[in-house]
TrEMBL record:
Keywords: Lyase, Signal. The lineage of its organism: Bacteria, Bacillati, Bacillota, Clostridia, Eubacteriales. Residues 44-119 form the Rhamnogalacturonan I lyase beta-sheet domain. The keyword Cell wall biogenesis/degradation does not apply. Residues 141-613 form the Rhamnogalacturonan lyase family 11 C-terminal domain. Transmembrane segments: none annotated. Residues 1-23 form the signal peptide. One of its GO terms (molecular function) is lyase activity. This is Rhamnogalacturonan endolyase. InterPro entries: FN3_sf, Ig-like_fold, Integrin_alpha_N, RGI_lyase, RGL11, RGL11_C. It holds the Pfam family RGL11_C. It comes from the Bacteria.
Length: 870
């Protein structure tokens, strides 16, 4: 039945594509029957709108998220400098090319459902290029380069932070001896602020197989943690040592084969070690003849190879899974975080039992997926797969391999598929049924097949394409039929352009498969470098912000920065962020393990198929929806960590409570502010380094911000109050604080943003009073209409001066001898016509304002403008 539904959905999507088009990109609509991306119980991270704006040609490209908690019918209104420039209605894309924008423009997206404002978000990421740089604190620029990265939201604000592992130039593969320099893990905000550094210490060797990072919100409190292997001498982000700070287990050959081993839980926001346990599967004897007869060597090659994954083993919470060994002995250990402690969930260990079906059946990487469709994820080690309870689900008995791809690679085959390459046996490549480990098809190779790749890169085949370094010169479809004789690159993948096929990523180049045997470079990341030698992998690919396309994270050539490249190609596809697909999100965490592999979604994506249905998940830490007062409309608290302490009140007066998280009261309050509408803030919001709240002025108003006089004396008044005027109005509190009011006037419809407090220590947070401004009783003046032309889309934009007291504007066009109203529901001072007006046509256009319920049509007609479509 599921296959039939898939075929029906694909046919419907093909019909939709045939009947419509937009700039050569197919119009696709969502189909709830196609792909879920969740089990209904998994708790995943809340993400904000994730708006970015980057330079694109002579304009700006703006992109934002469609999240799992957004309603299907969500309407997104995009503003530039408070002027509405685009409305994305249900099913329309969440990106826009703005011909009139610049890197100095301020972009905002308001989200409406059935005409009700649900959220308002301003872009935090605007660039005059197509990338954003994160400046790094290099431990030693002569030795270290940025290597693997992961993302997690460490403070619960809906924006990711980035975890970075530094790789020294003397790092070693496990097969080689030799001393290595220390490994460091840093955490940075996407704005480039370093939050902490963990020094892994001398007893952790540097190399691709040693330090794997598990980053997720393991306890589902809205903030991400880090779990990784540690040893005596690891220094956490606060400077505290784990175990014996002075221990040294590095032997004369530069390897570490003795000494205690740990698994440590670190707080994401500070890098503080919260809990440390013994590593669940110790190495045992790793030297001498005993190790040779058990592990297969006595110099740490096999026993010191680690993998790490994150998986929803219970279908609700993420667990960390750490693997040790795969050439011979293979083990996996699953741990949870409960009440701030690491708790073992299960351990699978073949030991040195060569008859165990999983013995030697592991890869240089690990991926997770719900292979048995029970709502819980399994862990795939390549040639073996382990159920959510830690039991062996299946094994291919084909042995170790270097690469794999796990996803819905064939939408006409039930369930998830696994594509593998093989280092031994018959070599070559295999497509595996993820439900049972059976081969769907296989091709032998003539030697070690070290690379393979699979995804839908070429439109029209109805499935992924498959290829490996052996057999050479062959690309296959899902049925194992050869469809091309020239292979594309095999290193990595990325969603980059506007269609639903995936692009190829190799080194700093993104390539597009335009036809069988035809691959064209469409993007080059100049000034950057890839990692891990000929594997040429990025630091990270992930849907970090913007719409569903992926960002590319590379290091700059001088190793001083991480550079995040974003697509500036328009798409007509509205789709939920990939990071709210359970499988993609968890595989993104697996990406960095050993030999990096790209993540895959739980659903198939292709131009011939329907867009997948919305993810069925739960989100934590979701901010409250906006509330309305008398003068204050669409009041939104942005400081989610302290949102419970904020409240919009009809008034406040002497004796009233000042903060929602303190018992301080006003002992005096200026009479001009008594009984005015009041925004009660949280005193703890003084510690938040971001905008705290925002609202829309429903009427012309005066906003009074009460500032702690100690900030004024210290010259630390918040920067955003520079447009406010200091007044003589004051207040005092029961805790002996005096306040002075800063005032600014706003017109009806203006957006008011309440920024940071300025100081954090030895002060209290500001508070806010709002009162109505008296309205002049005079007719609206001329609105000074300005006209902008978009020759690419044959559109016209009208911008005019706001009219004091106006709550609505209307547009009329002179047609067939009469003024005919086109719209009368405009609430901002801007209007953009529909696309594709007829070039050369000339129109008279009048704009009227409604003040106190009356339309000034006569003044509007007197001040009409004449425009000609270009």
């Amino acid at each position: 039945m599921r296959n039939a539904i898939k075929r029906i959905a694909a046919a419907a999507a093909s019909l939709s594509v045939a009947l419509s088009g937009f700039a050569g990109i197919p119009q696709l609509t969502a189909s709830a029957a196609y792909g879920q991306g969740g089990n209904g119980t998994a708790i995943m991270e809340y993400l904000d709108r994730g708006i970015y704006a980057i330079k694109s040609g002579n304009g700006m490209f703006i992109s934002w998220r469609f999240c799992a908690n957004d309603a299907d019918e969500s309407e997104f209104r995009l503003y530039r400098d408070n002027i509405l420039i685009y409305t994305s209605k249900a099913g329309q894309a969440t990106n826009y090319w703005d011909a009139y924008g610049s890197s100095n423009s301020v972009y905002r997206v308001d989200t409406y459902v059935n005409g009700v404002l649900k959220s308002s978000d301003t872009s935090n990421f605007t660039s005059g290029s197509n990338y954003f740089d994160i400046p790094l604190n290099n431990p030693d620029s002569s030795k270290y380069s940025p290597n693997d990265c992961c993302v997690g939201d460490v403070d619960g604000d809906g924006q990711y932070e980035i975890f970075l592992k530094w790789d020294p130039n003397d790092s070693q593969d496990n097969s080689k001896t030799g001393y290595t320099s220390k490994v460091y893990i840093d955490c940075y905000t996407l704005k480039g602020k370093q939050l902490w550094r963990i020094d892994m210490g001398k007893n952790i060797r540097a190399g691709q197989h040693y330090t794997q990072m598990c980053v997720a919100d393991f306890d589902c409190d809205g903030k991400a943690e880090l779990i990784t292997k540690t040893c005596d001498g690891t220094i956490d982000g606060t400077g505290s040592a784990i175990g014996n700070a002075y221990a040294n287990y590095v032997d004369s050959s530069g390897t570490v084969l003795t000494g205690p081993e740990y698994l440590t839980l670190f707080e994401g926001a500070t890098g503080k070690a919260l809990d440390t346990i013994d590593f669940p599967v110790p190495r045992g004897t790793a030297t001498g003849n005993t190790a040779k007869s058990t592990w297969g060597d006595n110099y740490g090659n096999r026993c010191e190879r680690y993998n790490a994954a994150i998986a929803y083993l219970d279908g609700v919470h993420p667990s960390a899974v750490y693997g040790r060994g795969y050439y011979t002995r293979l083990s996996l250990s699953a741990v949870d975080v409960r009440n701030g402690k690491l708790v073992k969930r299960w351990v699978y260990d073949t030991g040195f039992n060569t008859s165990d079906p999983a013995y030697g059946q592991g890869n240089h990487n690990v991926m997770v997926a719900d292979f048995d469709n029970d709502g819980k994820q399994e862990v795939c080690m390549g040639a073996s797969c382990f159920d959510d309870n830690g039991s062996l689900l299946w094994t291919t008995r084909q042995g170790h391999g270097d690469a794999m791809h796990v996803g819905d690679l064939d939408p006409n085959h039930e369930g998830i598929e696994v594509f593998l390459c093989h280092e031994s046996g018959s070599y070559g490549i295999s497509l595996i049924d993820g439900r049972n480990g059976n081969k769907i098809w296989h091709y032998d190779g003539d030697k070690d097949t070290g690379r393979c790749c699979a995804d839908n890169i070429l439109a029209g085949n109805g499935s992924a394409e498959f290829w490996g370094s052996r057999p050479a010169g062959a690309v296959y479809n899902a049925q194992g039929q050869q469809i091309a004789t020239k292979q594309p690159s095999t290193n990595f993948l990325i969603y980059w352009d506007g269609d639903l096929e995936r692009e190829l990523l190799d080194n700093i180049y993104i390539t597009k498969a335009t036809a069988a045997n035809n691959y064209q470079t469409i993007f080059t990341a100049d000034g950057c470098a890839s990692n891990n030698g000929t594997k040429s992998v990025p630091c990270l690919t992930a849907d970090i912000f913007g719409d569903w396309r992926e960002e590319l994270v590379l290091r700059t050539e001088d190793n001083s920065r991480l550079r995040i490249f974003c697509t500036n190609t328009e798409t007509s596809v509205r789709m939920t962020t990939l990071m709210h697909d359970m499988q993609y999100r968890m595989q993104n965490g697996c990406q960095q393990s050993s030999y990096n592999q790209p993540p895959h979604t739980s659903y198939y994506l292709g131009s011939e198929a329907a867009v997948p249905g919305r993810p069925n998940i739960k989100l934590n830490n979701t901010p409250p929806e906006p509330v309305n007062g008398n003068l204050v409309k669409n009041f939104l608290v942005k400081d989610s960590a302290n949102a419970d302490g904020w409240k919009l009140m009809s008034s406040n007066t002497t004796g009233g409570l000042i903060y929602g998280d303190r018992d301080f009261t006003y002992t005096s309050l200026a009479s001009d502010l008594q009984n005015c509408e009041y925004i009660m803030t949280a005193c703890n919001s003084k510690n938040t380094d971001a905008d705290l709240a925002e609202f829309t002025a429903d009427k012309d108003m005066e906003v009074y911000v009460m500032v702690d006089d100690r900030e004024i004396s210290a010259g630390m008044i918040p920067y955003w109050l520079s447009g406010y005027t200091r007044t003589s109005l004051t207040a005092s509190s029961s805790n002996d604080v005096t306040y002075t009011a800063y005032k600014k006037e706003f017109n009806a419809g203006d957006k008011v943003v309440l920024g940071t407090n300025g100081m954090t220590g030895y002060v209290v947070n500001y508070t806010v009073f709002v009162k109505e401004k008296s309205q002049p009783n005079c007719p609206p003046p001329s609105m000074n209409i300005r006209v902008n032309y978009n020759t690419q889309y044959h559109q016209i934009q009208f911008v005019w001066d706001k009219v004091s007291g106006a709550d609505r504007y209307g547009i009329a066009v002179y047609l067939a001898g009469k003024w005919r109203v086109q719209t009368s529901s405009i609430t901002t001072n801007s209007y953009v016509t529909p696309k594709n007006l007829t070039p050369g046509m000339t129109y008279k256009v009048a704009i009227a304002a409604r003040v106190n319920g009356k339309w000034d049509t006569m003044d509007a007609i007197k001040n009409y403008v004449t425009v000609t479509v270009r």
